[in-house]
Amino acid sequence: MSENQNRPFWEAKSLEEMSKEEWESLCDGCGKCCLVLLEDEETGDIWETDIACKLFDCTSRRCTDYDNRQKTVPGCVQLTPENISGLKWMPETCAYRLLDQGQPLPEWHPLVTGDPTSTLKAGQATPTTLFSEKKISKKNFESRSTQVRVRG
Length: 152
Ligand code: SF4
Ligand code: SF4
Prior knowledge:
Radius of gyration: 16 Å
Low-confidence stretches: none
Mean pLDDT: 91
Shape: globular
Structural class: alpha+beta
Distance between the termini: 43 Å
Number of helices: 6
Strand content: 15-25%
Number of domains: 1
Number of strands: 6
Bound molecules: iron/sulfur cluster
Order of helices and strands: HHEEEEHHHHEE
């Protein structure tokens, strides 16, 4: 048996080599990439808000129309092995980002723990107290900016 056959797929394969199922299973369900981000036009700085995308279910932390999401939310970027390295605003804990950077999955990742709730248990999931983009006026977005400066 080769060394690679003893290792889990996320260590043995490159992102490009993964099957669709393997690729999808990398998502830890944190929901952080579904937060509305604000960009400072002058500095280019990007700030997180506590506002969630209009398609985001803040309780289940799932997209409510995943298959058609880009028709409703054109700004929702479909992650691929080719574009992930350019998406500097993706959360630092995101499995796609980590693997693309040659880093291991965090110890709390569901693939590592075998527990689908381990992201939540580790305090890595978005809170259920987020505001939905559907319920908040765009002119108030700025006031919902958090102190978290995102990479970018
Ligand atoms: S940040 Fe990454 S791991 Fe978290 S929900 Fe988005 S794609 Fe999944
Ligand atoms: S469209 Fe769906 S996947 Fe995309 S940011 Fe919104 S909730 Fe997240």
